[in-house]
Amino acid sequence: MNESNVPEEIAENAISPNIDPPKDSKAIRPEPSNLFEKNPIDLDALRTLEGQNILKAGQFSFEQVTELCKLAAVLEKIEIWPFHPLDGKIVVTAFFEASTRTRTSFESSILRLDGKVISITDGKSTGQAKGESLADIGEMFNAYADLVVMRHTETDAPDQILENLRIPLINAGNGSGEHPTQALADWYALLKWRPELASPRVEGDPRMNLGILGTPGSMRAVKSFLLMALLFKDHIGKVTVISEMADPFGEEVTQQLTEADIDYEVSNDVREHLPELDVIYMNSIAFLGDSYKKMDSRFKLTSKSPIKDSAVILHPLARLDELDTSLDKTPHNLYFSQAHGAVFIRQALLMAVLGRLKALPNLIDLGHMTSS
Asked: Would you put residue 317 in left (φ > 0), alpha (ψ -120 to 50) or beta?
């Protein structure tokens, strides 16, 4: 970032977040400013998210995702709390299902924006444990907060709480449904790695071959990543889904892939396809009703796997044995950067949904933002 273009009060608060890899590591940590310095942020595209429920990856437009990522890149370069963007706002983080990264990432995002958090870390501590409906809980939340972030084991949980909830809801994972903010974190990592993805493809530019190790039909993070990938289809040459299931998609995802007219195939042979993939997205856990299922050990990746030299790996974490630690210090590791960036993309989303972009008037010049 060229500090000569940064307002003095912002330059004074510029930081280098302590998320660099160890000195002996070759893991990738893309420079955030590469995403916004030559590509102005359009705040008007972000204002369209104000007051919206964030339920599915497919609800976003290409412009909304890319502008959120560019704003996240700006937020990653500065210390944001002195501007108090969420001052006076209260967010309920209602996690009826266990979570480490997603809950703490959201709560860190809120607190670093100077918002307040009401944290529910266990569904057993709510009235639902006594039989109270999610619809009634939603009615109560209207009086307690300005926004709700909810994770739940039931796929239709967002529909249930929205019967009465009138403040914005952000879906942080609903059973085998979706995990839209994880998809935003995934694509934020990819856009920092390849900033050209944030612009319409120029004829002649190479297309990425995208590989997915998992089952979109029952892995919500995988599903949301794939559905958001459809927004970037002009940059993608082919999608290869490697799964132990003959039909890993389900009817809804298959329909959307068909409508997007994207080239894709399904395989159960990992080693055959690894050498041709530019991006490998993997997960370990499938949610099946009320239990979890590990991905078959045949799909395990190590530093000895035949991975293309320039390829990167994404993983929403937590991992089991499918992603070997021998890859952690290699240039294939984009997954730690992916995890660290989740705080900043969620900050950008919270500011947009809660209508607090105007809380940063002195930030307009940073990153050459544009606003009509």
From this structure: left
Helix, coil or strand: residue 311: coil
How do residues 59-85 score in pLDDT, each as one tens digit?
999 999 999 999 999 999 888 888 899
What torsion do the CA atoms of 153, 154, 159, 165 make, to the nearest 10 degrees?
A: -40
Helices (H), the chain: 8-11, 43-47, 62-77, 101-112, 134-144, 157-161, 180-193, 220-229, 251-260, 270-273, 335-353
Residue 148 has pLDDT above 50, yes or no: yes
Token digits of residue 102: 């997603």
| SS3 call for 322 | coil
* Domain 3-179+342-368 class in CATH: alpha beta
Six-digit token string for 262 = 């994207």
- Provide the β-strand partners of residue 242: 213, 267
pLDDT tens profile 203-253: 989 999 999 998 887 789 999 999 999 999 999 999 999 988 778 888 888
Query: Token pair 């700006």 is at which residue?
Result: 74
Q: How many CB atoms lie within 10 A of CB 233?
A: 18
pTM: 0.90
CA 261, 242, 154, 116: dihedral to nearest 10 degrees?
-80
> What pLDDT, on the 0 to 100 scale, is given for residue 291?
46
Distance, in Å, from the CA atom of 218 to the CA atom of 241, rounded to the nearest integer, reads 13
What is residue 166's three-state secondary structure?
coil
Rounded CA separation 285/317 (Å): 10
Tens of pLDDT along 268-323?
A: 888 889 999 999 999 865 544 444 455 555 678 999 999 999 999 999 988 888 89
The dotted CATH code for 182-337 is 3.40.50.1370
Residue 358 has pLDDT above 60, yes or no: yes
- Terminal C-alpha separation, the chain: 24
Alpha-carbon gap, residue 283 to 322, rounded angstroms: 8
For the chain, domain boundaries:
3-179+342-368, 182-337
